[in-house]
Amino acid sequence: MKRTIKENIEEKLKQELTIDEYEKFTSLLEPITIQKKQQLVFEDKVCKYLYFVEQGVLHSYLTDDNGENHTIQFGFEGHWISDLFSFVSNTPATFNIEALEETEILAISKTNFEKALQDIPKFERFFRILIQNAYIQSQHRIAKNYSDDAEHRYLALIKQQPDLLQRVPQYLVASYLGIKPQSLSRIRQNLSKK
Q1: Alpha-carbon gap, residue 169 to 97, rounded angstroms
Q2: Spatial CA neighbour of 104 closest among 17, 5, 189, 183
Q3: CA 176 to CA 15: how far, in whole Å?
Q4: CA distances (Å), 48 to each of 90, 116, 167, in order?
Q5: Which residues form a coiled coil (predicted)?
């Protein structure tokens, strides 16, 4: 189900936005359409925006010293994505962000982010909740990487995002799970036999 930015904000705040609050906030956003395989954020360059995915899929990844990419996050409809540390600290990004299909996003710059926090009181709370949730999800993912085997992590991922396999290449799913594509193929074969 496609979720609008208004629904996303109200769900996290557990309250409705006034028309004035919503219009003030959306006036600070820049709609952008990016093509499949187009890169939005580059490691070693400052990430100047937070992005809300309206339609499409993005993924963030880092490249290790051997040139191998490691998927960190997928951003589907209704998700926010960025290199948050770079955005907040104005330092070079650790992650790259790339479109996996044509993607429509709403971008908020650092200046407009600060303006939203200052001019619309609900948004300071909204972004605090957003950042808290991102931190909690990150900690949860780290814990699951140590405590669950790859099959359980795979099952949890497809339960959370049922259309993942239709929209994301298998090698990126494997990368996100921290396994090789061949291992993911074996897991999928074993599950189909059960």
Answers
A1: 15
A2: 5
A3: 34
A4: 8, 15, 27
A5: none
pLDDT single digits (tens) 106-121 = 999 999 999 999 999 9
Average pLDDT over residues 161-179: 94
* φ, ψ for residue 70, nearest 5 deg: -130, 115
Residue with tokens 């996003």: 105
Strand partners, 69: 63
Cα gap 47→163, rounded to integer Å: 28
pLDDT in tens, 29-88: 999 999 999 999 999 999 999 999 999 999 999 999 999 999 999 999 999 999 999 999
Q: How buried is 148 (Cβ within 10 angstroms: 0-12 exposed, 13-18 middle, 19+ buried)? A: middle
Q: Is pLDDT at 1 greater than 50 in this prediction? A: no
Q: What are phi and psi of 83, to 5 degrees?
A: -95, 90
Quick one: which of 52, 69, 68 has its CA closest to 60? 69
